[in-house]
Input
Amino acid sequence: MKSNLKRVFLAAGLAWMPVGVTYAVAAETAAASKPVVQTVLGMPEVRDAANLYSETRTDHFNPVVKGDLERIYVPNLRSNNVSVIDPKTLKVVDTLKVGKAPQHVVPSWDLRTLWVANNAERAKSGSLTPIDPRTAKAGKAISVDDPYNLYFTPDGRSAIVVAEARRRLDFRDPKTMALQYAIKVPQCGGINHGDFSMDGRYAIFTCEFGGSVAKIDLLEKKVLGYLKLALPSTRFKVSSSTFNPLETEICTSKKGMPQDIRISPDGKLFYVADMEADGVHLIDGESFKEVGFVATGVAAHGLYPSRDGKLLYVANRGSHDIHGKPKGPGSVAVLDFASNKVVAQWLVPGGGSPDMGNVSNDGKWLWLSGRFDDTVYRFDTQSGKVDKVAVGGEPHGLVVWPLPGRYSLGHTGNMR
Output
């Protein structure tokens, strides 16, 4: 009995004082009032079931990142390099030569390496280039088949290379990248972005060219099913760089092109950005059903929660084309998680193509690549004001570093 009571006290975050029944009752009451998430073995505990982003608040740094340089790493798809920006000066301070067609810069689960995913655009020369965040220098690349994107299992035991062209998820050793096993996802054309359930049991990945998403059982190592996303009857009409989604005309959409995906703070919903549907689908993760849709702007693409976990920044790329034109009607929509309403809209002066990135540690800045404008944008999260930094050809999945959080699930800093 005593050992059981002790576990209750510790689970409730209380000191163990075995001096009577009164303390036991208090501990049981505290434990009962605090939701406990049963995570998969090896995954760090969920400290706040109401906000799984609670450990990514400002200055909640893992001690291992102490000494890492403050930098923005920008993979340039056409230039085959990474632009390194000093966020304090807004200057490019270095350019790193990497592999062919770098798509994303991805923090490792243990936060000790930034991996550049060079997928070589469906050639057979794909690789992962490591960057040391303490020196901002690149190391020797590791040959890996078709690494369009990179994630890590919640327990940190595997890196997940998203082999987009192969319709496959390759689970690899997170340090050596030696292949452990693979999960084929044959009905997921263009598999590319994913996110994980609060307890780590499953993941949902988007199928860009199938207008659908796939649910993956991480314990049984299998596909649980596919969900075709419902299309809105209308989408925004691309007319000019003065686009305002609250006022513009709309036109019929006939297909979907899901991109980034992010789980809600309470773990109940997954938000899926759809570049063709011009908004985000709301997916109930457990039932695996679509339960809503929010229009956000032309070509919804990247998704980033605010530091307090209350808002979701949606980068609207401004073009329904995979290779769009510069100076399009790109924007950022600010979505309130509680109401699922767009509460603000930030346009890029003169037009642009906000794509992917992340929020700064202090929450004051949203950094995004300008995919078709060879530019990086820094949005002021209070006013929406935009600063620009010229970089290489076709910047894509940039990462802001260091970021608060205990560990990384991959992509451009999906931190928990």
Observations:
- The CA atoms of residues 270 and 325 lie 30 Å apart.
- The mean pLDDT is 90.
- The longest helix spans residues 21-33.
- The longest strand covers residues 91-97.
